[in-house]
Amino acid sequence: MVRLAIVLPMTETTAEPSIGAQATRSREALPGADEHQEQPEQSVDLFRPEGTRVLAMCNQKGGVGKTTTTINLAGALAEYGRRVLVLDGDPQGNATTGLHVASPGPRDLTQAQVVLDALDPQPLIAQTNVPNIQVLPASLDMTGLSSDLRDTGTGLTLYRVMVDKLRALGLWDDILIDQRPALELDTDAQLVASDGAIIMVDVDEWSMDGLKRQVAQHKKAMARAQRDDFEVVGLVVGRVQKPMGHFDKAVYDLLRAHPTIRCLAEIPVRAADIKESRHQGLPVCQARPRTDTAQFFREIALKGRLVKAA
Ligand SMILES: Nc1ncnc2c1ncn2[C@@H]1O[C@H](COP(=O)(O)OP(=O)(O)OP(=O)(O)O)[C@@H](O)[C@H]1O
Ligand SMILES: [Mg+2]
Question: Which domain of life, per UniProt (predicted)?
Fold first, then answer.
């Protein structure tokens, strides 16, 4: 693992670099890449255009594609010239290893220690194979973090303390927090450290209930933190398989046209693109930029008002 005591210079922060045009060209090169892709909006107000934007990638349901989307949204944002930190908030450490960064060893400083003791997080930061993506890795000692945070009495605010230190460095345009599948104090504390959230869902009869529970949890956590500025940027339907049966189709239609939460994109099952890119320690946008899979992740960045179309 390459750890950076001092984070190396990265690309300029901009929203409309030439790579945006490249992304558009890639799209043009793939006519009919997916029937559900709509044209990107040409004129949008970006969500939180100033400073470091922090998004929690969440759903208490396991295996819906949170980590896959975190890694690949990071790739799409990086392609648009954004400087991205992937904050691996899950002790499973899949975002860490998925970007070919090693988890801290038993004698290394860990995220759990930094959060609990309000230490400087910068020594944790590791470089990935993509110049403008870094990782703040997870480690197994985070399995006890929820109860450790509870013991402090101020646990709900402690991720915010760490994230504010990261914001103050001015090194990133985006921080994406890959959450574990839980509704606990550590995930609440990560939400409270965030400006907004993207909720991953799958096509399953429990998704609507799960979505309601997730949004209710956001409201609860924000009420406790006395915040009213948190925004659910949208939902992403992951691991979509077609054709689907009538029952799944009904759920899918509800998710795509959700009455209160905007559906940003869907990610079809694309095991080869996703897993072979991961094997290279790269997001799909960097490993396979001309595939429709890369375009699905760009779609999240565009529809989520995280970047502007070139
Ligand atoms: N679009 C996709 N096509 C094919 N495989 C996928 C896709 N999305 C995710 N997967 C695979 O599904 C599994 C679960 O995905 P992932 O780990 O991203 O979900 P998660 O929500 O982060 O899970 P957890 O709740 O355990 O953190 C992984 O093996 C991943 O490679
Ligand atoms: Mg995960």
Answer: Bacteria
